[in-house]
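On clarity, I found the account of how folds are encoded harder to follow than it need be. What matters is that the chain and its backbone geometry are given together, residue for residue. For the editor and my fellow referees, an illustration may be useful. For illustration, here is how one protein appears when written out as sequence plus structure tokens:

___
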Amino acid sequence: MPVLHHQTRSNTRESTPASISHASVHSYRSGTDSSYDAPSNNQKAGNSHSRSNTRRSKQSGAASLKSTGGKDGQSFIAAVVEGRGTGAEVGMCFCDLKTSEVILCQIADSQTYVRTLQKLNLYEPVEILVPTTTVDSVNSKLVKIIKETMPSTTITPIARRSFNDATGLEYIKKYIVKEGSASLLLGIPTKYFCLAATAAVMQHIEETRHAVFLNHSVRFKYQICSGSMVIDCATARNLELTMNLSSQNDKDTLFGTLNETLTPMGARLLRSNILQPLTDERTIQTRLDCIQELSQVEDRFYALKASLKILIDVDHLITSFIQVPTKPSVKHSEQRINHVINLKHTLHAITNVAQSLGPCQNRLLVTIHRLLTDPRLEKFSDLIDEVIEKNVVLEKTAIGIRHQRCFAVKAGCNGLLDVARQTYKETCNDILDVTNRYVQEYGINLKVQFNVTMGYYYTTTVDQLGGNEMPLVFINVVKKGKSLTFTTLELVKKNAKINDSLTEVYLMSDKIVSDLSSNIRVEIGALYKASEAIAMLDMLLSFAHQCTISDVVRPEFTDTLVIKQGRHPILEKISSTAFIPNDTYAGSANTFQIITGPNMSGKSTYLRQVALLNIMAQIASFVPAEYASFRIIDQLLSRICNDDCIELNASTFMTEMKESAYIVENATEKSLVVIDELGRGTSTHDGLGIAFAVCEELIHNRSLVFFATHFQELTTTLTAYHNVVNLHLETEGQKPGISYKYRLVKGSAKEEHYGLSLAKTLNLPHYVLTCAENVSLRLTDLQESARRHSESNRVVSRRRALAQVSIVVGCFF
């Protein structure tokens, strides 16, 4: 094998193509360069010593094992079309260009398009296709809402004729994987709007991406909206489910807290579950049983993690087999060889995962094991071993990947292929001889390096020249510090000859690999199912991992929300101090809970904690508490942030009113609502009136509501309703300032002038604080005087009325 390390040319030629996976290949410069040290004059050719700088590079086609699901990972193109009738019937199609998965949805939505927006937020498409007739149209309410909710997403108008349901059905019949297609094809023909969206997406991909799918190779899924919790875009943002509001990353989020997945498939599934939690208790309990079993057997737990850690993105790998460019090239031929080698590695890793799952008893784990031991996967391995060298493994260096592509196909499959590879080997060895000749002739210790762009080239240091000029044979000299990079005309010719040989190798290998890929595509459905099984297993292992590192408890599901010593999952992870837990109780007798307390006492944190723990329970994760019982909810609504929206020219109060209107319109008995300080964006009296009206409406529809406020009047007026309870965050007054306990206790907050107490801890001038205190106390006295005066007037009026009644009664007698 023609690896450029120090050995004699005769020994090099004795290497066989089968030895490629064990080659001593080193990388340089972040994986793009490979190098070896040529011997100096006093070194013998047979005993030369090599020095190499090594760094790892990414394997071509392999994805990062830890997927965040953030902006960098977006690859969805969506199409949205609305029916022209009176009802809001919306059809959607999402196509993932990386995984070649197509999601179809048709929703009978409300006028606020809550379900439609949830789906768009779930997949975060980089581009949304809409009919041209809906853009800038007075009646295009849906497009306007999408632009307001997702301002960073590209809205692309295309011709209305592209949204053709008959064409969409033809695309599905043409591309769908045969296995399991009968059930989809039975019900999908009547879903006219999602079929129309499918036609638009497929045509757009063919026209703009210059790629087509192979027949019967794409996985189509039709998703119904029932069976999952509705979390609108604002709530997902307010609760920081997948994106942190301050740092704009996914680490300090619920996703980042729970994400211990080892594969990109598992991370994608986790993100999808967080944004769309389950509402089916039976499914949740099955997952919880599975997590409990995985966390109890330590050896199996670590064996599964070790097996998953070496897996690459299987969905991405499937796409490489079924999606081909319209104009094939040499680059595509060499990539196809990489894909087959990646599949060989993936199948071996899947076998290891299946072996570790063997003893499991949970029915979900048994199903995963069955999917991973599909006989067709073993058939794929046999087909690959017939063509590809058995000891070929994934290479990490640039030169190693090139050798891997060259010698992956077994010798003897094609005579001309073997001749081209022999030419490649001899040319590489000739470079070694030429380098030794330069070293002996010019007395310079040369280092041969490699990168994908330049091929082989030389480097040395200024010190090696000893003050002499660079010999004229060396050209294209580039100096960087003390390092010199250059080449020679002879080396340029050798690189060109190597490239010609590699082109022949790739083209001749491509026919063999193409036939192998065609045989694999016939049963590609087995890989799709294996990928789904691995994603589910990876997510459940991530939840089980939380059980081993945190004090968590398995949630129960009843008609009452009970959390004993619950903790905020995100803050507990990122905070350097111990988090103070709190209890939560909400049943049919106290569905509306008013939480009061000073600024910074922890009201917003408590609201978010309740919502996040409910989400964790409904995605089948254990929760940080001593005991937890949840009521399964079908919708989570929130009003937390008070930020202005500059993009939409909306003030804090306008945003408040929009979100409040949305909550009032959509809240039901099965909803969980968290509201933080509603009404503070306008005048005190108007804000109090609006807050009271919203609270009264939510009390009547018996939603489960946690309402944090500074309006003390609400704590007295709303207690007339039997299902309202007052709670507050405990504090203690001290000079100066307030001592925060962060404990939730019964009753409303008694602390007065807590704003002044907090201001005293800051660097405000003393005379400013004194003036503020005087004004505050004066206003309080005036308010109290007005109240007393109002009470005395009422007493006088009541006595006068009684006196008049007495006079009238006396007249009759």
